[in-house]
């Protein structure tokens, strides 16, 4: 490593670029005049990176001890330390935590700019996006970032990971059920399924009908009133077939009655609410006839028939219709809209020929529910629909504008990609860029800072810090660290080795340096 002397230019993680004016404490510290500060600042030698006067690199790229960027984003004190520890544990096991993804995100500025534009477009319309990338390039992490962005923009987010059996794209009900299982709300982190959405919508509907302000003030959802789409709030409780949703409207009216002052708290009322929501969420074992009869008898109202939902492979259009209703429900409840995230979409390419066709229609109907019939590359009116006559009559596009953002993530594999290209416009496809060497430093800083928060008593010395940063930089440059996943794994393992086996760390680094080249 190039030595640092008086007169040299150095870079520090939090202070920026400066020139060394004095070396103190036996060569262990530097007194630097930084460009953005007055006077001299003392920094440890191992936190300095030697650069040219214009800030370009002169050689190795060590990482600094703590950028403090992560510290400002996490809660202070013990709460932040425990959260940092949970995040490190997740990264250690190879499961990137979905929340807080921005803390260790690098090189995705272009993709996130597209996402921001898409989300803005969905406020008054809809959008579709397909992210393509090789294994380990961060497709799932990209969906984590989309989820974060969407929740920040007040969207309801539903997410599913596709596979060949349990959540096969040739089984529409299973995909729909997985999306509902993976639902997230911007205002209620622990909420599961559709209960929270139904509850808010019913509260706001009662507010809409109330004439006096005191009644409005009693409503726990009143703070969302300014964001509510009042037209759709009224439509979802309408008896007009041209305005209502044939599944959600009767379900909402039954829910409103079951949670009324007269019936709330009754054991049978709670049981019926569970049956009702389980049915709409695609997981009920009771028939729709049994459910309708029980609801009508107990509530004394008849808002309309709740039609059957089945695990039939030819009902993709029906579940697109229901998701369109959930998007309208989200607007009526004061949210911006609905975001659908479908990971591992390439799994469709591994199915049989007939199952691939079914998966293609599911992808196409979901895309059409977002951008309308004119926004997809197939005729949704001529595409096959299954079920009984009443089911075939339901349109896959419930309403326009939809306020739906439909996002697919898939490995850049030819068979799966070809299926999506049959139904989705090429302009929606986006190849994820490979990580660049210049991005690795930011990732190292964030992970080191996160690690130091997780283990407050741990200190990281220059004997590991500089070589680790240099190896990450070189590994990315020569292709040995081809994916962000490999970089995350190496950094966490190296930090663990330094914390738990400090005496062996030098030999570990030396051996790894030889392997990385």
Describe it.
The chain is an alpha/beta fold and 517 residues long. It has 19 helices and 11 strands. It has helices at residues 69-73, 77-92, 109-122, 139-152, 172-181, 195-209, 213-218, 230-235, 248-258, 267-280, 288-299, 316-332, 353-371, 389-392, 414-423, 440-454, 462-477, 484-500, 505-516; strands at 9-12, 16-24, 29-34, 41-44, 49-51, 127-133, 156-161, 183-184, 338-343, 404-411, 429-431. The strands form 2 sheets. The chain has a 6-stranded mixed sheet, with helices on both faces. Strand 1 (9-12) and strand 2 (16-24) form a beta hairpin. It starts with 8 loop residues before the first strand and ends with a helix. Mean pLDDT is 84; it is low at 58-67.
State the end-to-end distance. Answer: 16 Å
Low-confidence segments? 58-67
Q: What string gives the helices and strands in order?
A: EEEEEHHHEHEHEHHHHHHHEHHEHEHHHH
Largest sheet: 6 strands, mixed
What structural category do the secondary elements indicate?
alpha/beta
Instruction: Please report the total strand number as a whole number.
Output: 11
Number of helices: 19
> Rg to the nearest angstrom?
27 Å
| Form type | elongated
State the helical fraction.
Answer: 40-55%
- Percent strand: 5-15%
Which strand order do you get reading across the main beta sheet?
8-7-9-10-6-11
């Amino acid at each position: 490593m190039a030595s640092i002397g008086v007169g040299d230019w150095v870079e520090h993680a939090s202070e920026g670029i400066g020139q060394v004016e004095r070396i103190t404490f036996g060569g262990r510290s530097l007194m630097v005049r930084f460009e953005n500060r007055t006077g001299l600042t003392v920094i440890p030698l191992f936190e300095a990176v030697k650069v040219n006067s214009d800030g370009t690199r002169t050689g190795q790229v060590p990482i600094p001890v703590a950028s403090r960027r992560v510290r400002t984003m996490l809660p202070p004190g013990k709460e932040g330390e425990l959260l940092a520890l949970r995040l490190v544990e997740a990264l250690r096991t190879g499961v990137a935590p979905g929340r807080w993804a921005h803390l260790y995100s690098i090189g995705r500025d272009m993709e996130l700019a597209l996402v921001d534009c898409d989300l803005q477009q969905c406020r008054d319309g809809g959008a579709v996006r397909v992210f393509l990338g090789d294994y380990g390039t961060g497709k799932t992490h990209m969906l984590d970032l989309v989820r974060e962005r969407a929740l920040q923009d007040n969207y309801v987010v539903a997410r599913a990971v596709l596979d060949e059996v349990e959540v096969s794209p040739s089984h529409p009900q299973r995909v729909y059920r997985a999306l509902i299982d993976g639902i997230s709300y911007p205002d209620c982190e622990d909420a599961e399924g559709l209960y929270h959405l139904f509850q808010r919508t019913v509260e706001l509907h009662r507010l809409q009908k109330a004439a006096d302000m005191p009644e409005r003030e009693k409503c726990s959802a009143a703070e969302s009133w300014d964001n509510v789409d009042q037209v759709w709030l009224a439509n979802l409780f309408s008896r007009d077939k041209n305005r209502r949703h044939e599944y959600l409207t009767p379900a909402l009216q039954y829910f409103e009655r079951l949670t009324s002052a007269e019936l709330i708290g009754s054991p049978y009322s709670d049981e019926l609410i569970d049956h009702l929501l389980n049915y709409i969420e695609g997981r009920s074992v009771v028939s729709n006839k049994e459910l309708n009869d029980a609801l009508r008898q107990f509530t004394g109202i008849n808002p309309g028939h709740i039609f059957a939902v089945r695990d039939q492979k030819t009902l993709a259009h029906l579940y697109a219709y229901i998701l369109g209703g959930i998007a309208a429900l989200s607007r009526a409840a004061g949210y911006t809209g609905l975001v659908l995230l479908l990971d591992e979409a390439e799994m469709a390419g591994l199915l049989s020929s007939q199952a691939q066709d079914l998966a293609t229609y599911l992808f196409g109907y979901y895309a059409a529910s977002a951008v309308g019939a004119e926004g997809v590359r197939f005729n949704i009116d001529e595409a096959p629909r299954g079920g009984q006559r009443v089911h075939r009559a339901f349109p896959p596009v419930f309403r326009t504008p939809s306020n739906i953002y439909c996002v697919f993530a898939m490995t850049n594999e030819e068979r799966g990609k070809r299926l999506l290209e049959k139904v989705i416009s090429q302009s929606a496809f986006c190849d994820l860029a490979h990580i660049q060497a210049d991005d690795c430093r930011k990732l190292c800083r964030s992970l080191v800072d996160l690690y130091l928060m997780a283990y407050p008593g741990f200190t990281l010395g220059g004997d590991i810090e500089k070589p680790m940063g240099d190896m990450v930089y070189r590994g990315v440059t020569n292709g040995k660290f081809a994916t962000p996943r490999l970089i995350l794994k190496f950094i966490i393992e190296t930090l663990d080795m330094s914390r738990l086996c400090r005496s062996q760390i030098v030999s570990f680094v030396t051996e790894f340096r030889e392997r990385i080249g």
